[in-house]
UniProtKB/TrEMBL annotation:
Keywords: Hydrolase, Magnesium, Manganese, Metal-binding. InterPro entries: NUDT19. The keyword Magnesium applies. The keyword Nucleus does not apply. Belongs to the Nudix hydrolase family. This is Nudix hydrolase domain-containing protein.
Length: 253
């Protein structure tokens, strides 16, 4: 998703690095980190980088940038009618990458600081079944959001509810990204954008020469975020994505 009229040599995407403390590390040495990372292993039949390990994530959708509908969600659940006021905790000093500045935001287009976080949360749910949302009491917005600057960020928790059919909602969101808005309104939650910490922006290297914009670009301009979970879900609680030919794994460090 890039500015109107610009050639599309790549697609915009968001990815999420999910980490959690390993309570039973293979090596009891704090200098080695002793944490778990949730990753995906692409199947050998995958159309893009088969057999490679990757973090959950994927391309953006227009629904991620739908300011009007997301304002309804955040207004009903958290009481926010002006999403611009949510941007202060996410401001990063210095020059921002083009992916964060190449569109005009307003009443219809959501700020990329929020939209890319929503995309990362949505794609992680689609690919792993882990849903990062919060309700009106989960996040204290009167306190500044801690950044990863030598301080331990607050832990996030994957959403659970006895009436939540995660497989059904996962299929619905995978088929239509705007269904994440319906999910939030149904369970009175919002994407936990406050738990995602900006890590890096990465553009896929040039693997082969392209003389004109391809119909479906194979390069991705990706925003990476980090989220610290209270615990990585058990393997039995995660999903193998048959459509994307990926398997969910937990890597211990």
């Amino acid at each position: 998703m890039v500015g109107a009229g610009l050639p599309k040599y790549w697609r915009e995407a968001a990815s999420l690095i999910l980490v959690a403390s390993n309570r039973n590390p293979p090596v009891k040495n704090i200098q080695l980190g002793n944490f778990d990372v949730l990753m995906l292993k692409r199947g050998k039949g995958s159309s893009f980088l088969p057999n490679a390990y990757a973090y959950p994530g994927g391309v953006t959708s227009e629904a991620d940038f739908d300011a009007r509908n997301w304002t309804k969600v955040f207004s009903r659940v958290r009481g926010f009618t002006d999403l611009a006021k949510l941007l202060k905790p996410f401001k990063v000093p210095g020059v921002r990458p083009p992916i964060m500045t190449n569109r005009e935001c307003g009443e219809t287009i959501l700020s990329p600081e929020i939209a890319f976080r929503i995309c990362a949360i949505r794609e992680t749910f689609e690919e792993t079944g882990v849903l990062l949302v919060c309700n009106n009491s989960d996040v204290d917005l009167t306190k500044p959001v801690e950044r990863l600057q030598g301080r331990v960020p607050p832990m996030a928790m994957a959403f659970t509810d006895r009436d939540f059919d995660d497989q059904d909602w996962r299929n619905r969101v995978s088929g239509d990204a705007s269904q994440l808005q319906d999910l939030c309104l149904t369970f009175n939650v919002v994407p936990n954008i406050w738990a995602l910490y900006e890590w890096s922006n990465w553009l896929t290297p040039v693997l082969f020469r392209v003389t004109q914009p391809p119909e479906k670009p194979r390069r991705f301009d990706t925003m990476f975020y980090v989220c610290s979970l209270n615990a990585v879900p058990d393997k039995s609680e995660l999903y193998t994505d048959e459509i994307a030919k990926t398997d969910v794994i937990v890597v211990s460090n």
